[in-house]
Write a structure and sequence with these properties.
Blueprint lengths: L5 E5 L3 E7 L14 E7 L1 H11 L3 E9 L3 H11 L3 E8 L5 E7 L5 E3 L11 H6 L1 H5 L3 E4 L5 H13 L3 E4 L9 H4 L4 E2 L3 H8 L6 H14 L3 E5 L5 E5 L3 E4 L12 H15 L3 H15 L12 H11 L3
Parallel strand pairs: 1-4, 1-8, 2-6, 4-5, 8-9, 9-10
Antiparallel strand pairs: 2-3, 6-7, 11-12, 12-13
Helix pairs in contact: 1-9, 7-8, 9-10
Amino acid sequence: MPRKPRIAVIGSANIDMVTYTDDIPRPGETIFGREFHLGFGGKGANQTAAARKCGAEVSMIARVGDDLFGPATIQNFRSMGIDTTHVQVTPGVSSGVAPIFVDSKGQNRIWVIKGANDKLLPADIDAAADTLKRADFIVMQLEIPLETVYHALQFGREHGIRTILNPAPAMPLDLTAAGVADYVIPNETEAETIGGSPVGNLDEAKACAKRLIAGGLSRTIITLGANGALVAGKDAMHHVAAFPVSPVDTTGAGDAFIGSLACFLAEGFEELEAIRRANLYAALSTLSAGTMKSFVDRDLFNELWLQKSPA
């Protein structure tokens, strides 16, 4: 590559509080969990880490609280070589936190308390304009205010910067406003919410994708977990198969997909090839516990890609 791809992530930074348990307690019930881990997370931060570990130069635009977690979050970004010029400490507000419960099958349940993430405003996007203009891709999610997301999408359009919107957590969207994004990438649950139709299998995913495109999206990729990913636009639709694994913890797999996809696309890989690579990167992230710490670096990814990809 003549230079590393440049990715700017506008989004959330949380502290993940992960409990591993065999059962989920019923109302009024107390049970013992198996393990507990405290780590750095948030969909924006996770996608930032994935893009960085894939080899991109990455800048984060975010807000953290003035509590114990804020400075630690900024230092964690810096330790990975991520530009934190536009990660601001917000007085009088807590940092975002996410209690996560992972059951014995590796499936997760997540609560998000947005805290300072909810204070990331359009003015913060304008303040980061010089950084954003240097990016090959701008990546966003929905753990920050919608007005900020839509403002950033318009910024990307006006300055010719490609954009990815991950509509997570699931909430209704203005498809015309979201359609400014080059890619809108929901999982099955998020696709159901924004598309208004169920996504329980591949055929339903195809029907939902058609609705999303007809509703105003220019291009969408619906991630389907063990069933891979479905990419759709006005012209065609393609299913990209997953790489089979036995997951330990699926937390953060979607973020691994999006952060790595931004890097692969920015490097110039053809779309379906980039999705195949992102599928493997996401699958590899499920083989160990946690979010950021489960993301592999580029050298290991390249080695495994040569082993697992079709000849």
